[in-house]
Write a structure and sequence with these properties.
Helices cover 37% and strands 11% of the residues. It has helices at 3-8, 32-36, 47-62, 73-85, 100-108, 132-141, 161-170, 215-222, 234-247, 295-307, 317-320, 328-332, 348-351, 369-376, 383-396, 399-417, 441-450, 473-483; strands at residues 66-70, 91-95, 112-116, 120-121, 126-127, 144-150, 174-178, 343-347, 359-363, 423-424, 431-435, 457-458, 463-466.
Length: 486
């Protein structure tokens, strides 16, 4: 049972337990509904088990070894990561202008901070990305146990985590990435790649979208046919691309690793006729292929292989359900090596629509993070907040959630096109970093505030407006009207 369903349970019991408001006594009436769902670790509810299940499911969605729900912000995730991999007296490399929690984590671990500096873009008044060269320069000179970087930065500057990970691996250092502002990254191809994956494409972009239509509708759709013909024309490819999202079956068993499925190659196998039941046909075809950037090529190959079999010119949608994709299991078994960071911390409340201060700690290696979390986390967590995290992840991973993210990005792109007099920084598209003619950053911030808009952060050169899944078109249109005044 999920945390969400746990909170919906009703009991006839009278609880002589904490919390003492008993879900019925509301000191702050405006939070009445919150009180009703504020439960504790009672025998009736047993929310601890549901939390473990929810976290395991989250790990599958994100493709990590483990994922933990945090109700004390990304700060607690940074602290727990450092405590999990650093011992007293060891050195931790961090940016000298990083968030205060980075240094606090090092202090709590009894470790020693070593700092690196970043170049400042004077034209925009912001710091540039952390590079592998900067990190390696420090690792050559110092025996560093862990490296903490911020990617993306507040203003949306993303670093090449894959290259930095290679350097850290070379010198035996753990890599911790503060990705507080990148919680949307795993769910949209138009956003930078999350530090969870490095430069390894995550199959989550389309493989986790399992067919969930009612059985009658599913049956009707499966009976649709591809156009007949001898060639796999563009209409066939478009057809497959439009349908694959909802018809692909996520493989829960071992599939063929490389080298059988070489880069961009299509391979299949079929049971011998002697053991194949009558009428099985395509149901015994297994497709093995590499990550989603080769998708178009592979679909073309698949179509051609079907057409090459005489008498089987028509491809039914039900056949697509037997295209198996790489998932979490294959990554765990080194079929698809993950060169992402060892620890990645994301804030759901920043851009992903979560409640303050919900966050996530992702771990890509086998290490006891739970012990570190127990050290700094209350034994009486807020289960309404924990349930909101589960619901938040489910939303982001849904068709509706992904569509919302894509819609946000497209709306921001349109806004930028419609305001030629202002200059916009090209970084994370959910961060609108803007400069207005004849105004510095602080003057622009004041101008926006006088016109009913408050920005997230400003400096002497530019102003940054943060957007997320809650930023609707109406809000962006208002910003557009104000900026058009220049």
């Amino acid at each position: 049972m999920s945390l969400i369903n746990i909170l919906r349970k009703k009991f006839k019991l009278d609880f002589f337990t904490t919390p003492s408001h008993s879900q019925k006594f509301f000191i702050f009436s405006k939070l009445k509904q919150f009180y009703k769902y504020d439960i504790s670790e009672t025998d009736a509810y047993k929310p601890q088990e549901a939390l473990m299940v929810a976290q395991k499911r989250a790990a599958k969605i994100y493709g990590t070894k483990s994922t933990y729900f945090l109700t004390n912000g990304s700060t607690s995730g940074i602290v727990a990561s450092v405590l999990a991999c650093v011992s007293t007296g060891e050195k931790v490399l961090l940016w000298d202008e990083s968030h205060a929690c980075h240094l606090n984590a090092v202090k709590l671990a009894g470790a020693m901070p070593v700092y690196y500096k970043l170049v400042k873009d004077e034209n925009w008044g912001i710091y540039t990305q952390t590079t592998a060269e900067i990190i390696e320069e420090k690792l050559k000179c110092e025996k560093i146990k862990a490296v903490i970087i911020t990617s993306p930065t507040y203003e949306g500057i993303v670093s090449d985590v894959a290259k930095i990970k290679e350097v850290c691996k070379k010198y035996g250092a753990y890599l911790i990435v503060d990705e507080a502002h990148g919680a949307l990254y795993p769910f949209c191809d138009k956003l930078p790649t999350s530090a969870i994956y490095g430069n390894t494409p995550h199959p989550n972009h389309f493989s986790q979208q399992v067919d969930t239509l009612p059985s009658t509708a599913r049956k009707a759709r499966q009976e649709e046919e591809m156009p007949q013909g001898e060639k796999a024309g563009q209409k066939h490819i478009n057809f497959l691309q439009s349908k694959i999202q909802k018809t692909v079956k996520v493989c829960k068993t071992r599939v063929c690793p490389s080298p059988l499925a070489g880069e961009g190659d299509f391979q299949h196998e079929r049971k011998p006729a002697s053991v194949r039941k009558s009428g099985e046909g395509f149901r015994n075809w297994h497709a093995y292929f590499t990550p989603h950037q080769e998708f178009l090529k592979l679909v073309t190959s698949f179509w051609n292989s079907i057409l090459s079999r005489k008498g089987r010119g028509g491809l039914r949608l039900k056949h697509l359900r037997y295209l198996y994709v790489f998932t979490m299991e294959e990554r765990e078994n080194n079929y698809l090596e993950n060169n992402g960071a060892d620890f990645v911390i994301q804030s759901l409340h920043k851009t992903a629509g979560g409640l303050n201060p919900t966050a996530l700690l992702h771990c890509n290696l086998d290490i006891n993070v739970e012990k570190a979390l127990e050290t700094i986390t209350t034994t009486s967590p807020s289960y309404p907040l924990l349930a909101s995290i589960e619901k938040n992840i489910n939303f982001l991973n849904s068709k509706k959630g992904r569509g919302k993210i894509l819609e946000l990005i497209e709306n921001i792109e349109d806004l930028k096109k419609n305001i030629p007099n202002c200059e916009f920084y090209e970084g994370d598209p959910t961060k609108i970093l803007v400069k207005a003619p004849n105004l510095n950053g602080f003057e622009l911030s004041k101008f926006l505030y006088k016109n009913g808009i408050e920005d997230e952060k400003t400096n002497e050169k530019s102003t940054m407006l943060l957007c997320g899944v809650g930023t609707d078109l109406k809000k962006l249109k208002k910003l557009e009207r104000v900026l058009k005044k220049f």
